[in-house]
Amino acid sequence: MKLHGSMEINNDELYIGGVSCLKMVEEYKTPLYVFDEELIRKNCRDYRKYFKVDENKNRVAYAGKAFLPGYMCRLIKEENMCLDVVSGGELYTAYKSGFPMENIFFHGNNKTKEEVEMGVKYGVGKFVVDNFYELELLEDVCEKEDKIQEIYFRITPGIEAHTHEYIKTGQIDSKFGFALVNGDLYNAIEKLKNYSRVKLVGLHAHIGSQIFDEEPFLDEVDIMMKLVKEIKEKYNIELTDVDLGGGVGVYYTDEDKPKTIKEFCSAIIDRAEKTCSNLGIEVPKLIIEPGRSIIANAGSTLYTIGSIKDIKDVRVYVSVDGGMTDNIRPSLYHAGYECSIVNKMNKNVENEVTIAGKCCESGDILINNVSISEIESGDTLITTSTGAYGYSMASNYNKIQKPAVIAVKDGEITPVCRRQTYEDVISLEL
Ligand code: LLP
Predict the structure, then answer these.
(1) Residue 401 falls within a domain, yes or no?
(2) Strand 285-288 relative to strand 241-243: parallel, antiparallel, unpaired?
(3) Residue range(s) defining the domain that contains residue 241
(4) Are 133 and 281 in a shared domain?
(5) Catalytic member of 339, 359, 360, 417
(6) What is the best residue among 51, 59, 65, 293 to mutate for testing ligand 1's pocket, by most ligand atoms within 8 Å of CB?
(7) DSSP 64
(8) Does pTM surpass 0.85?
(9) Which residue, of 290, 320, 346, is where some domain finishes?
(10) 173: buried, middle or exposed (CB in 10 Å: 19+, 13-18, 0-12)?
(11) Active site residue 265
(12) Which of the listed residues 166, 167, 209 should we mutate to test ligand 1's pocket, taking the one with most ligand atoms within 8 A of CB?
């Protein structure tokens, strides 16, 4: 198992942020999500530095869909980052935690009237307008509220990136954005002539998530810069901002060979400068919206091992007290993870087992065929890199409670979310 961020081993025992994993479990029980605060902050700082936020006035907006409790809103604010939200719920979380609304990018392919009203009233910085329906809705709401709203148009640039089918979004056959090839983007720009409340200042595209290959991102940069020039020439609209969507892919298992944040950002910035110079235009303000690469490796999940079922010559099932309810990614995307026993870190890894969840579902398998040290019921298992899209996609299937979340740093624990109680689980029932 690869150690991330502040993870270290003392006397066979795993520590994160200077806190023993066994101590965390003693205090907070399992399953438990643990976040390495120092690593989250380092990732934010790397993005700001290498995406040239201070130097070039570019912006890095954390994609809240990856993990957005109030704790993250506050941390992101402290790190001088912007925030990308995709729903009224995420917007409300940011609002309640005092996040500056002007630093918010509001996404979504089907924002409801209520959400559009909320965004306009709160004063979000940019609406990323996805379609004709939203454009009209937004104009109406701004008219009623007597506001001018800056917007980007989300486009589908027609780039096929290599990632899981469910998490790729930039290809032409997509529910997101105005397509380029069928002229929808140009029709949307034409429509602006009838509107006085929405002001187009930029373009946005997102080609997909967990992408390792640089090329699709560089192609995206080229397409966007050419559009900026074309739109200026054709419509005399000066687009000052270009938002390139999500960040770089991350390490889950040794099959993944991700670029560093520095390599990824530098490649994008260099390409934008080169392409703009070839086109004879100024480099616009660039925006990037990383979620996974800020938070994935900073999060881990601790479980207690219960039943161990040894089917001779077939498989050993090791069941934990969580599963697809706290990490749906293996079942949904066949995502791979690494694991270890937190107090047997230096023991020989010689048993091959399958880590199963506790849901009433054969597909609730967290890790297939993984090598691990000798295990017993009652041991604490850690799965690493569960920080992105783990808690944010958690469910109450089988009426299992959502786990608690803590952050650790310099030997201290900060509680982030409490564990749900059974009362919480039935609290919506009338
Ligand atoms: N911006 C937009 C418009 C997006 O749709 C996304 C991710 C991001 C930014 C952040 O991308 P990232 O930096 O995290 O790659 N649930 C899936 C991931 C879905 C991603 C959806 N959009 C998973 O667990 O892999």
Answers:
(1) yes
(2) parallel
(3) 107-290
(4) yes
(5) 360
(6) 65
(7) G
(8) yes
(9) 290
(10) exposed
(11) no
(12) 209
